[in-house]
Amino acid sequence: MRHVIGIDLGGTKTAGGIVDGGGNVVFSSSAATPAQSGAAAVLENTAALVRSLQGEALRRSLRVDALGIGSAGVIDSGRGVVVSATDAIRGWAGTALTAELSALTGLPAAALNDVHAHALGESWLGAGAGVPSVLFIGMGTGVGGGYVLDGECIEGASFTAGHVGHFASPFAYEAGEPLACSCGGSGHVEAVASGPAIHALYRRLGGESAADTRGVYRLAADGDPAASEALRRGAAAAGSAIGGLANILDPAVVVVGGGLAFAGPLWWDEMESHTRRELLPPLAALRIVPAQLGTTAAIRGAARRALNLLPAIEGTHV
Ligand SMILES: [Zn+2]
């Protein structure tokens, strides 16, 4: 059976796996991303991880034919280039991701955005398997997503499709003023619904003891008023956004992943009730389910794109 390598390249960690044609992760490994050392260091770090996975494949007598990379940033998957990126990875914008990694590893490569890879993985083998349309929403440090139709993630004309954290939310206002968003805009979903936004709101409401979003959740579970209000508002904003998107896209299933999706029922139930409040009547039975593949989703989604390269590669040898 043919194998490929799938990589999930984030600002903190780079994870990779040897994946077979059925999407099974045969072996996986990860390394810290040297995000502040610049693009060349991040590329070399990724190539080192790929080479170690190639070595492992060799030990197992497996042939690895291609490489797929799901990367932070807006990725032009046609050219394999990072179109734009936040400073989570210094100097990442403009990087010729597939050309550079092919040169460093000797493998043909495909690249796409990491959240798109995550959506693709969940729709291929996870909570969205077996249906023609999947809306994936990732709720964590950031808010992102992807819409997968007939097995392909919709990337958009400029590859920014799925930026579900960056549209107007009625919950992202305080005293009539929009909250600042990480994208440079304001009044967006992410400004109130992300993990850091929930923690920041808790602080603005006078909370002092929780050091992070996890802490806010624990205090909310104990009935702390500031923590409860911050969590409730974040979850309501998430639900309102998800419901509106479901009305627009009419997916067969909504898959919710990211840290907040697994924080517990306080967040999930509030999110789901606000989603359902938003839905048009024909969508009343819409399934809203948690993601299933955890950290392997993006590895598998990236691997899926690498597998797509194989017929073309074989074609060149005919
Ligand atoms: Zn924004």
Which descriptors apply to this entry?
single chain, 318 residues, alpha/beta, Nucleotidyltransferase, domain 5, 2 domains, five-stranded mixed sheet, 9 helices, 40% helix, 23% strand, globular, binds zinc ion
Molecular structure report:
This is ROK family protein. It holds the Pfam family ROK. With 318 residues, the chain is an alpha/beta fold. The chain folds into two domains: 3-119 and 296-315, 2-Layer Sandwich (Nucleotidyltransferase, domain 5), CATH 3.30.420; 131-291, Nucleotidyltransferase, domain 5 (2-Layer Sandwich), CATH 3.30.420.40. The chain is built from nine helices and 14 strands. Helix 3 crosses helix 9 (296-317), helix 6 (213-221) packs across helix 7 (225-249) and helix 7 (225-249) packs across helix 8 (265-278). The longest helix has 25 residues, at 225-249. The mean pLDDT is 96. Bound molecules: zinc ion. Zinc ion binds at residues 166, 181, 183, 185, 188, 190.
How are the secondary structure elements laid out?
Elements: E1 3-9, E2 13-20, E3 25-32, H1 39-59, E4 64-71, E5 74-76, E6 81-84, H2 97-105, E7 109-113, H3 114-125, E8 133-139, E9 143-149, E10 152-153, E11 173-174, E12 177-178, H4 190-193, H5 195-204, H6 213-221, H7 225-249, E13 253-257, H8 265-278, E14 287-290, H9 296-317
Parallel strand pairs: 1-4, 4-7, 8-13, 13-14
Antiparallel strand pairs: 1-2, 2-3, 5-6, 8-9, 9-10, 11-12
Helix pairs in contact: 1-2, 3-9, 5-7, 6-7, 7-8
The structure holds zinc ion.
